[in-house]
Amino acid sequence: GVQETEGQLRLLSVGLEIYSRDSRYTFQRSEDNYWQLTVAGVQETDQGLYECQVTSHPPLAYSRYLHVTVPELKILDERGLRILSKFYNAGSTLELKCLISRVPRPQHFILWVHGNRILNFDTTRGGISVKSDIFDNGVKSSLFIANASPLDSGNYTCSLAGVGETTVAVHVIIGETPAAMQHGTGALLSSSICTSLFTILFSLWEMR
């Protein structure tokens, strides 16, 4: 068997003798002389042309091109924007959407995990609901947590078995919105700068 990637040929096997150092490749031969190549844990670098050559007269060769699709995982907020972190006010409803695309015919639903709790099956907190939909080339899941509290802060991970996972950091705050927090920090910084400037000017005036 021969693999061609980026214009370069690579010998994988001759008969049942494997020449590739990649242990993910295995070869089988059935009683009716049917040869099978198996690639475990397919990676993007496995994409390319594979050729089976038969040492007959004249020589025969059968080629197949392997297309590898890389799944895309992302978490969105209630506005459909991709996020890595999100702030919520205490008492509001936490809403996260997980979209996993470029997965042909997915066989599983998305799992949501917070800490060591699988939220899809969590009945201890209450107010948690998960809605999932499978479509042709992916799966989407929406997580809702009513009456959020600071205890709901932390990392939320959505995962699909055999595909991967992605995580978002959630912060539930009391009293101030993120914009107000940033404004307060800016005001404090400006006040500190003004105080320092006044001290310097006063010291210079005394030195006169």
From TrEMBL:
<dbReference type="InterPro" id="IPR007110">
    <property type="entry name" value="Ig-like_dom"/>
</dbReference>
<dbReference type="InterPro" id="IPR036179">
    <property type="entry name" value="Ig-like_dom_sf"/>
</dbReference>
<feature type="transmembrane region" description="Helical">
    <location>
        <begin position="186"/>
        <end position="205"/>
    </location>
</feature>
<dbReference type="Pfam" id="PF13927">
    <property type="entry name" value="Ig_3"/>
</dbReference>
<keyword id="KW-0812">Transmembrane</keyword>
<dbReference type="InterPro" id="IPR003599">
    <property type="entry name" value="Ig_sub"/>
</dbReference>
<protein>
    <recommendedName>
        <fullName>Ig-like domain-containing protein</fullName>
    </recommendedName>
</protein>
<dbReference type="InterPro" id="IPR037448">
    <property type="entry name" value="Zig-8"/>
</dbReference>
<keyword id="KW-1133">Transmembrane helix</keyword>
<feature type="domain" description="Ig-like">
    <location>
        <begin position="71"/>
        <end position="169"/>
    </location>
</feature>
<dbReference type="GO" id="GO:0032589">
    <property type="term" value="C:neuron projection membrane"/>
</dbReference>
<dbReference type="GO" id="GO:0050808">
    <property type="term" value="P:synapse organization"/>
</dbReference>
<keyword id="KW-0472">Membrane</keyword>
<dbReference type="InterPro" id="IPR003598">
    <property type="entry name" value="Ig_sub2"/>
</dbReference>
<dbReference type="InterPro" id="IPR013783">
    <property type="entry name" value="Ig-like_fold"/>
</dbReference>
